[in-house]
Amino acid sequence: MNSKNGYTFSGCTRTKPASVKRNTIQIEYSDPVPAAEDEEPPGLVSVLPGQGDTAELFPIISRRSSSFRARYFPDTRDDEWNDWRWQFRNRIHTLKGLERIFCLSDDEKDALVFAGRRLPLSLTPYYASLIDPLDISQPLRKTVIPGLAEFVSSPGESVDPLNEEGHCVAPGLFHRYPDRVLLLATNTCSVNCRYCTRSRVVGNGNGAMGRKDWDEALKYIRAHGEVRDVLVSGGDPLTLPEKSLEYLLSSLRAVPHVEIIRLGTKVPMVLPQRITESLVRMLKKYHPLWMSIHATHPDEITPESSEACSRLADAGIPLGSQTVLLKGVNNNSETLMNLFHKLMIIRVRPYYLYQCDPIAGSAHFRTTVREGIELIRSLRGFTSGYAVPHYVIDAPGGGGKIPISPDYIQGTVNGKLTLRNYEGKTYEYPDDSL
């Protein structure tokens, strides 16, 4: 019986992970896959000719991924590993699947079977390769493997904290801001984040919405000339089949008053193999097209994710990042600056740093707002302005994104912050830091 950080494990042994320098973008990060002391320094392994349609498959496998695959998926060929459909089909989504790779703590095991309930769980083999199999304190591990704290609801939390359902105007379509709408094209993600603000719908087995639902949403957009900007999100729209996604994009681009289309996705970080040449060629047809990428921690910036973002940037798609501030994951200046610098290197501009939404069971992830303000203050002036994102609260109740600075905080009553949004209206957020 082993113990680490107060948690108990059974039958687990630890091999020292390698700390190496990656050559792809000349940045350093630790390889979370245990490696032999004499292992060759990780670099890149190209997909070999003759192993499938390499023109339409992802072009690289890092040695980290190659080592992980050899250990846990030894019968998988290069062309299979680099096929996003293989990655998607082989997502890890059961206790048994996790235990095959990770040494789970009692807390993690209990969370998966607590009161006979199953929490939504999904991670691609690629993303699993980034996670330490033994260290339950590893930041990325906390974001994807459940813990019992998710079952503890705190005051001010709800299953729909942003009141998205209150702004629903058609199936999957939400009209909260004057000139833009949010279209949830699917309820499926390749990886389930433990702090997801849409956990009420994501991972519930319903999968993608049908074209009938999309057509209802498109009908509303066509009828409302004030809508100039459409954010396509989910779930993750890049998990859709290419033909389905193109149907949606082409339909939106055909609406004369829709000027901008944006895609919200975490795929480049968790399923970079999805960014194929074919997908990029299709996306290029529907400019002006922008992309918001959910990036959480510098460990996500790998040779694979760097290649995925480079392909998108080379296609002329402006890339911005959205990061959720998470206690014990990225709530320190060094981690955030490292993440934002690495994003800048791969041509992703840090755009939003979100205060964690008060989704039910998220208290263990939420920092105080004052801590977030201090983190932004610690970045300003110590790095380029392009690398400092907007720190925002997406106001509970549907008030929209509110930039956080002393000018926007009106006061605190009964442990809740009173905030002023862009309309001059006030909203409350549970926080007793002031």
What does it look like?
There is one protein chain. This protein is an alpha/beta fold and 434 residues long. 27% of the residues lie in helices and 21% in strands. The chain is built from 14 helices and 19 strands. The chain has helices at residues 63-72, 78-81, 84-89, 95-101, 106-113, 125-128, 139-144, 211-223, 242-253, 267-270, 277-284, 303-314, 333-345, 369-379, and strands at 2-4, 7-9, 17-21, 28-34, 44-46, 60-62, 168-170, 173-177, 180-184, 229-233, 260-265, 289-294, 319-325, 349-355, 390-395, 400-403, 409-413, 416-420, 426-430. The strands form 5 sheets. Strands 7-8-9-10-11-12-13-14-15-16 form a 10-stranded mixed beta sheet. Strand 14, helix 14 and strand 15 (390-395) form a beta-alpha-beta unit. Helix 8 (211-223) packs parallel to helix 9. The longest helix is centred in the middle third of the chain and has 13 residues, at 211-223.
Give a short overview.
The chain has 434 residues and is of the alpha/beta class. It contains 14 helices and 19 strands.
Distance N to C terminus: 44 Å
Query: How many DSSP E strands?
Result: 19
Strand percentage, roughly?
15-25%
Overall shape: it is globular
- Across the major sheet, the strand order is 7-8-9-10-11-12-13-14-15-16
Radius of gyration using CA atoms only: 21 Å
Low-confidence stretches: 1-11, 14-55
Specify the structural class: alpha/beta
Q: How would you state the average pLDDT, rounded? A: 85
Helical percentage: 25-40%
**Assembly context of the chains:** single chain
